[in-house]
# Entry
Amino acid sequence: MLLLIVGLLIFLGVHSINFLAPNWRQQRIHQLGALPWKGLYAIASLLGFALLVIGYGQARLEPTWLWLAPTWTRHLAALITLPAFILLLATYVPGTHIKARIGHPMLLATKVWALSHLIANGGLHDVLLFGGFLAWAVFGFIVLRKRDRAADKQYPAVGIVRDVIAVVLGLVAWAAFAMVGHVWLIGVAPFGG
# Structure
């Protein structure tokens, strides 16, 4: 469990720098240069991610159960993640109305993903992982939306075609992950018995 906690602290800590210390971040980029900063950021992120994956995997072998979720919650979680995939794709398709309205669709996608997994998983390790991501995404969303309002930052929408692209790509990615990727990577079939 310690590796999971350390991994979460590193991974979410690195990804919180822009929320908590944007000026410090800019000073480091100015001091080091953009590429070295991105390199250090990537190394720290990968280290944190590796530790949380290993720690989560170890914790799954000897779980501490807080509650036992019924099987149907796995199906519900799989369905709830559908909008998370669409929101995630809307992050990368420029000019969507989704991004114009939400501002930070990746953080909202993370909230939906984490909440759906908390519904379907009742181990202490699940609460640490998904609860940690949920708390981080809620905090980040609040901070960045407040910053956007203070700066009167707008995310312009180009046209509905961009939204259709994000929705279609999100549906395809969700289906591929729900039907194949989740079993292959995680070992759990979201729609299996």
The chain has a mean pLDDT of 95. The chain has two domains: 1-62, 64-193. The CA atoms of residues 72 and 120 lie 8 Å apart.
